[in-house]
Amino acid sequence: MRKHLLFVLVTCIAALAYAEDDVTIEARIYNKKSKGTMPYRILKPANYDLKKKYPLVMCLHGAGGRGTDNMSRGTEAFIALSKPEVQKEYPHFLLTPQIPGDATWHKNVTENPRHRYIDLALEVLKDVQKEFSIDPSRIYVTGQSMGGFGTWYAIETKPQLFAAAIPICGGGDPGAAQKLKNMPIWVFHGAKDTIISPEKSRVVVEAIKKRGSKVIKYTEYPDCGHGSWGLAWQEKELIPWLFKQKK
């Protein structure tokens, strides 16, 4: 447990430092009376050109990223995808919304529908789509831990919106397998994860495969606990795989 907490702390500090060093990352607040309020950060491609259409990746943080400070921490995806060399090869938008300390992505905190945080994050995404030149056929979602659950929930709720997904050490609903069978999904988990059992990934992956999916991938690290996001984003094929997906 102590090693896991140290790993999460180092990851969060690295993400925070990187975000603060990159002036193209903009902190914003989504605030619509009828929908709710959500802080988020957005990274725009270098040399952004209105005449071009760009892919967008929505990154959902884990529990360590919760708060109201609007910092891009708790998501290894944001660190990996915001690197200058990645942005140069694959120019894209990065979107990372933030939820408060008592919240989760994948279920309501209260009966108030305004506290459906994944739904609010999707409203933020919709707003960003209106403002910028986003390719609607290349919108992706990824998340780790609690954000892994949020990733599953997002694609289960809006499968038509996303071209691909990367849920890491989360869990989804096997009952949604039919509507996800044609979506490219690369799932990651650690076999020794004692925080979120790998069985939560295994069962939904198996359910989707039984529906005939040929485009779902599952990677389970035999010696990894609850920190598989670090290994996942070191996979050389992951980023090229993500950006070649298109609806």
Summarize the structure.
The chain is α/β, with parallel strands linked by helices and 247 residues long. It has nine helices and eight strands. The chain starts with a helix and ends with a helix.
Task: Give an overview in words.
The chain is of the alpha/beta class and 247 residues long. The chain has a single domain, classed as Alpha/Beta hydrolase fold, catalytic domain (Rossmann fold), CATH 3.40.50. It has nine helices and eight strands. It has helices at 2-21, 76-81, 84-89, 117-131, 146-157, 177-180, 199-210, 228-232, 238-243; strands at 25-32, 36-43, 54-60, 93-97, 134-144, 164-168, 185-190, 216-221. It has an eight-stranded mixed beta sheet. Strand 7, helix 7 and strand 8 (216-221) form a beta-alpha-beta unit. The radius of gyration is 17 Å and the shape is globular. The termini are far apart.
Protein topology:
Layout lengths: L1 H20 L3 E8 L3 E8 L10 E7 L15 H6 L2 H6 L3 E5 L19 H15 L2 E11 L1 H12 L6 E5 L8 H4 L4 E6 L8 H12 L5 E6 L6 H5 L5 H6 L4
Parallel strand pairs: 3-4, 3-5, 5-6, 6-7, 7-8
Antiparallel strand pairs: 1-2, 2-4
